[in-house]
Automatic annotation (TrEMBL):
Molecular functions (GO terms): phosphoric ester hydrolase activity; zinc ion binding
Pfam families membership: HHH_5 (PF14520), HHH_8 (PF14716), PHP (PF02811)
Native source organism of the sequence: Deinococcus proteolyticus (strain ATCC 35074 / DSM 20540 / JCM 6276 / NBRC 101906 / NCIMB 13154 / VKM Ac-1939 / CCM 2703 / MRP)
Name the UniProt record assigns to this protein: PHP domain protein
Organism superkingdom: Bacteria
Classification via InterPro entries: DNA_pol_lamdba_lyase_dom_sf, HHH_MUS81, PHP_dom, PHP_phosphatase, Pol/His_phosphatase_N, Pol/histidinol_Pase-like, PolX_PHP
CDD domains (UniProt xref): PHP_PolX (cd07436)
The Polymerase/histidinol phosphatase N-terminal domain, residue ranges: 277-354
One cellular-component annotation, GO: cytosol
Length: 511
């Protein structure tokens, strides 16, 4: 089987539906609808990919024989033929427009019809006023789309910290085997949240010898070589090796925001091993891929003490959010696992509704061991309304952690309009911890905000893992915490399970 995941299947089905809609060749849109329905159904189905392959997708609602055969071929070949076919009819530049936030198939078609056939063309059309004149867009829509297009253009040739780290580790590992020492440097040494590539300082040997070593490394594509340096790409990420001695500076404190501050000694900063509880994670109860039991085992394998769950609430229907009766069943399963002696706490990631109220009634929230409150909708509110919404949620006595507070997705979209200082002030006043979401797409809060508020607000570093593998993202959150000068005293995950429980529910924890 080619290296295809369930998410890949869902993505391929949706992308095919989008392109069919853009093409308009699908009379009545029946095929597109069929692919979309199959995608939604497959996304929610609980069987593993292996099981699905063995049973040829039998029993998955909305996946008929025809689509099942296409998916099986995809699993074998790594190509989804209907997508390739549809893509042939749509220029690459037009397909690229789907990367712009706010554009669905209908609008992409309208842009294409108006001769706006790429992201740069969209940006230019927004600036020149041409876009505002296209039917269905208007001045306000054109301005928003122009900004979104610019965001996509700025994100080109940028990489996530995780991508650069994995590339650097592959290269450093190969060089270490040949006896060359390496150290992260440049923007990677600074743990920047996005970067142009991975910089490494190499001690020992010559660029020619490094090049010889790396020639045997899978995924390595050689680039330029000078007397002092070697460049190339690993897995598409640019890697630059430069000759030098290990840096004496602690690079994470090497930003303008650090100037003049008194910061902890590097050795005193938070470490991955200090994290006892993995809080805010997802399981098959909502949109995760692993059972609660598997997630607990995953946490323990990584050397942490306990798992805090955080499945979605009812308003997050797209993510299989739990209705109140389902939440009670979920809590009952967690209580049963606790009775077995498993180190697990019952939490939920509860949606913050547009008015700042929460997605469950207070009596239901009180049945949980802790509550993460997050925004997953209503991104378009004004800064004043969004701030009031988050302040209200952060001030709720049963909310313990404010999840991914700014809503940004690196290289994909900016966060919503917000006065983050007002929100963190509310966290400080109510004792709510602010999340540093460790997912490399988020890294939200921004470390700059954490740095400004350290000592006044408690923080929680959460992977938001939707799979056992996702738990490994913790290190990126810890890097952000280090950049912000946090020690274990600042971070509620460093409490042991009993202490965390008592912190989250000070009144009821005695009973
Ligand atoms: Zn979330
Ligand atoms: Zn989450």
């Amino acid at each position: 089987m080619a290296d295809v995941t369930r998410k890949d299947l869902v993505r391929a089905l949706n992308a095919t539906a989008d392109l069919l809609d853009v093409l308009g060749s699908d009379e009545g849109g029946f095929r597109a609808t069929a692919y979309r329905n199959a995608a939604r159904s497959l996304d929610r189905h609980e069987a593993s990919l292996e099981e699905l392959q063995q049973t040829r997708f039998a029993g998955v609602p909305k996946v008929g024989k025809g689509i099942a055969a296409e998916l099986l071929a995809y699993l074998d070949s790594g190509r989804f033929a209907p997508l390739d076919e549809a893509a042939e009819g749509v220029p690459e530049g037009v397909q690229g427009l789907f990367a712009v936030r706010g554009l669905g198939p209908k609008k992409v078609r309208a842009l294409w019809d108006a001769g706006i056939d790429s992201v740069p063309a969209l940006r230019d059309a927004a600036q020149s006023g041409i876009l505002a004149a296209v039917k269905g867009f208007g001045a306000k829509g054109a301005q928003t789309l122009g900004q979104a297009a610019q965001f996509v253009l700025d994100a080109q040739d940028r990489f996530l910290l995780s991508q650069a780290t994995l590339a650097a580790e592959a290269v450093a590992g190969a060089l270490a085997q040949a006896g060359f020492g390496t150290e992260f440097s440049g923007d990677l040494g600074r743990s920047r949240d996005t970067l142009g590539g991975a910089d490494l300082t190499v001690s020992g040997g010559e660029p020619a010898a490094w090049a010889q070593t790396l020639a045997a490394l899978e995924g390595w594509a050689a680039g330029e070589q000078t007397a002092e340096s070697l460049s190339g790409r690993w897995g598409g990420v640019p890697v630059r090796l430069e000759r030098g001695e290990p840096a004496a500076l602690f690079l994470p404190f090497d930003e303008p925001e650090h100037a003049g501050l008194t910061l902890p000694e590097p050795a005193a900063l938070l470490q991955v091993a200090d994290i006892q509880g993995m809080l805010h994670t997802h399981s098959v109860w909502s949109d995760g891929t692993a059972t609660l039991r598997e997630m607990v085992a995953g946490v323990q394998t990584l050397g942490h003490a306990y798992l805090g769950t955080g499945d979605h609430s009812q308003s997050a229907a797209y993510a299989g959010g739990l209705t109140p009766p389902r939440l009670r069943e979920y809590i009952a399963e967690i209580r049963a696992l606790q009775a077995e002696g498993l180190p697990i706490l019952a939490g939920a990631e509860v949606d913050i509704l547009p008015d700042g109220s929460l997605d469950y009634a207070d009596d239901l929230l009180a049945e949980l061991d802790y509550v993460v409150a997050s925004v997953h909708s209503g991104f378009g509110l004004s800064a004043a309304d969004q701030t009031a919404r988050l302040v209200r949620a952060a001030s709720h006595p049963l909310v313990n952690i404010l999840g991914h507070p700014t809503g940004r997705l690196l290289l994909r979209r900016e966060g919503y309009a917000l006065d983050i200082d007002a929100v963190l002030d509310a966290c400080a006043a109510s004792g709510t911890a602010a999340e540093i979401n460790a997912n490399p797409w988020r890294l939200d809060l921004r470390w700059q905000d954490v740095l400004r508020w350290r000592g006044r607000v408690k923080f929680s570093i959460n992977t938001d893992a939707h799979s056992v593998a996702g738990l490994r993202d913790l290190r990126y959150g810890v890097l952000m915490a280090q950049k912000a000068g946090l020690t274990s005293a600042d971070v509620v995950n460093c409490l042991d399970m009993a202490a965390f429980r008592a912190w989250a529910r000070p009144v009821s924890s005695g009973g």
